[in-house]
Amino acid sequence: MYTANSDTDIVEQPLTFKSWDDFNDDFRGRLEGMGFVDYDVLGGAFVSDKYAWGLLQDEAEWDAWNDFFDYAKSSGIDAHDLWSAGMNYYSGDMSEFVTWLEEAYQGQWDSMLDYAYDLIDDVYGNDIPKDLADNYFDFDQFGFALKANGDLNALILDDWEDRYDTLAEAEAVYDEMYDMRDSELGEWYVYDVVGDLESALGDKVKDYFDYKKFAKDLEYDYSYDRATGMLFNRNI
To answer: Which one of 104, 147, 189, 202 is at 20 to 30 Å from 52 when CA atoms are compared?
Structure first.
């Protein structure tokens, strides 16, 4: 707190008082004792000028700050980190900040990709819904695996007599399929040979889930603060 007509600072720590009335009485008593009438209120490293004024003028603002620190403490979160990160995405009044945090704050992760892994594991486990699997299945990775682990070879050349007139014909088909792009091969196997992802892979669909693409799309709904690792829901 700073008085505009003097070089004298009146420094207060509002939230160390038991009540807003105690804080206000102390500040105004000190102000009166110095004979000041006009003054400015400045914040500090944590509280901006705007919120410093609010603390002095409005008991509800003082209560809101206490609620915020109580929330941070009970949640085991560093209050400074939570404040600096949250204020990057919150634009409302201080009185609603904790209410917003309770819904918007998701936790802390090393990256959005880590959050994507945890979200799938915690919500779906191995039972990824069909629409999600279809949207984020990595056909490129799966097609590569079909070539690398010998499944394509077995599919075309094992018991070739049942499907082809000659071994040379079977080998020609194998070569043609092997030359396909990995993603095209993966889609061919899933949809043309088997029919759908669940029938083709069962609970192994998760092994080929494209977490990077999923994490990228999550950014439409979530804001990730790289400095603190905190994640906030954009839709709150």
So the answer is: 104
